[in-house]
Write a structure and sequence with these properties.
37% helix, 8 helices
């Protein structure tokens, strides 16, 4: 391993000169059917980059009550992006679109703006349950009708891929961003 590390071609990734990082990002983007991918050192960082990219301070994110972004990322949506989390109780990590129907705040200068829906697949605190693709598609359709953005915490997306045989690109097509694939 040390010999391989010593012999590896490297470059400054800030300037897009590291061939290994470039290959990894291109491979993940292709797997997900996305325009681009960005390698970062942690799933928390990737989730929070996505929250920040999709929101403005004072926005609200709808998420499941025991999801990783809410429970295990140290209040990062609020601390880093000024985003509040509106949590929704679920069936072991799985939300149904009917649970979201009345969750969008009205257009009012005195309230946060509902902006983002974040799901987790597979759901860690939900016992590793695979999010049914039909439920994701329904939530995505609902979100699009209401002008909301979709993010997937895909830290265990490979588990869903292996369990169902559904390719990463099919899972990812329902989301504007996906984090934590590798």
């Amino acid at each position: 391993m040390r010999a391989a590390i010593q012999a590896a071609e490297v470059g400054d990734d800030v300037f897009g000169e590291d061939p290994t990082v470039n290959q990894l990002q291109e491979k993940v983007a292709a797997l997900l059917g996305k325009e681009a991918a960005l390698f970062v050192p942690s799933g928390t960082m990737s989730n929070q980059i996505c929250v920040k990219a999709h929101t403005q301070p004072g926005d609200e994110m709808l998420c499941e009550a025991s999801c990783h972004i809410y429970v295990n990322e140290a209040g990062a949506p609020a601390a880093l992006s000024g985003v509040t989390c509106r949590t929704i109780e679920s069936d072991y990590g799985i939300l149904d679109v009917s649970q979201l129907e009345d969750k969008i705040r009205p257009d009012n200068d005195h309230q946060v703006r509902t902006r983002l829906v974040a799901l987790e697949n597979t759901h860690n605190r939900g016992g590793g349950r695979v999010y049914p693709l039909e439920k994701i598609a329904d939530i995505n359709s609902w979100a699009r009708r209401h002008g909301l953005i979709m993010h997937l915490d895909g830290a265990r997306l490979w588990n869903a891929i292996v369990a169902t045989g559904i390719p990463a690109s099919e899972w990812a097509r329902h989301f504007d961003s996906v984090s934590g694939l590798l």
